[in-house]
Design goal:
258 residues; alpha/beta; Rossmann fold
Length: 258
């Protein structure tokens, strides 16, 4: 037996003998290094780990770095006395799925709100507008195989959604979005059909977030800022993103605790 085959068999034996929710190293899970009690029940999830740091420094009192495993930053502090964790998730559904599962299963997170950017698909939506994802369609997700022939329709938590809409001054766009598993998409026909059917925007994480949340019986919502417009090809300058994203975080926090 070659060395590669021996290593493969060794890993298979380890997988059979190691419980799914334990880790062989000093970290609490394979992907999150926070210790027990360091993750708040309410987690806000930007894709960019540096946005997690920015948001924690700007909005939290007593923010502390609680995990930086694999470069994915997590900070916990308080907002108006409420414990909050900002945790990066990376880009795309597979990465989001890892962190959502571990935050819920291993750390007891009860409310997960994605805060991120999206590309507008409707002409009445402008750059910097807020989009609240009521539902999220997708071609495929990491959870798709569970449902086999069923096209599961993942949706947001209604109370979070309604509170976020109120916190936006009833100015946010509310409706369905599309979660893509590709960033550089060349399916103009798909874009046309999504727009035709009233889809508000496209991003890369929400469908899996809502599915994982439904599986565990916890609350989830995506509060998104329009950074690009698919129809007009406009995009938000990098220098303007920090100011524009502040409103998104404020709405998410208000929704979580109002």
């Amino acid at each position: 037996m070659g060395r590669a085959a021996e290593l493969h068999l060794s890993l298979r034996r380890e997988a059979r003998t190691t419980p799914a929710n334990t880790c062989t190293g000093p970290d609490m899970t394979f992907h999150i290094g926070a210790q027990p009690g360091q993750i708040a029940p309410t987690c806000l999830l930007p894709g960019d780990p540096y946005r997690a740091r920015w948001a924690a420094e700007r909005f939290l009192t007593g923010a502390e770095l609680v995990s930086e495993t694999r470069g994915m930053l997590a900070y916990t502090g308080t907002w108006h006395g409420h414990p909050v964790t900002f945790h990066g998730t990376g880009m795309g559904m597979p990465s989001l799925s890892i962190y959502a599962n571990e935050l819920i299963r291993d750390y007891g997170a009860k409310t997960l709100i994605r805060i991120g950017s999206c590309g507008a698909l409707q002409p009445d939506i402008n750059l910097r507008d807020l989009v609240l994802a009521q539902s999220a369609s997708t071609i495929g997700s990491p959870s798709a195989a569970i449902f086999r022939e069923v096209s599961f329709a993942p949706i947001a938590d209604f109370n979070l959604l309604s509170r976020a809409y109120a916190a936006s001054g009833q100015k946010a766009h509310v409706g369905g979005i599309f979660t893509s598993d590709t960033f550089y998409d060349e399916r103009q026909d798909l874009t046309d059909q999504l727009r035709r059917h009233g889809c508000l925007a496209v991003e890369m994480e929400t469908a899996e977030l809502y599915t994982v949340a439904a599986r565990y019986g916890v609350r989830a919502l995506s509060v998104l800022t329009v950074s690009d417009h698919i129809l007009t090809q406009e995009s938000l300058p990098a220098a303007d993103r920090e100011t524009s994203f502040s409103a998104m975080v404020e709405v998410a926090l208000a929704a979580a605790f109002s």
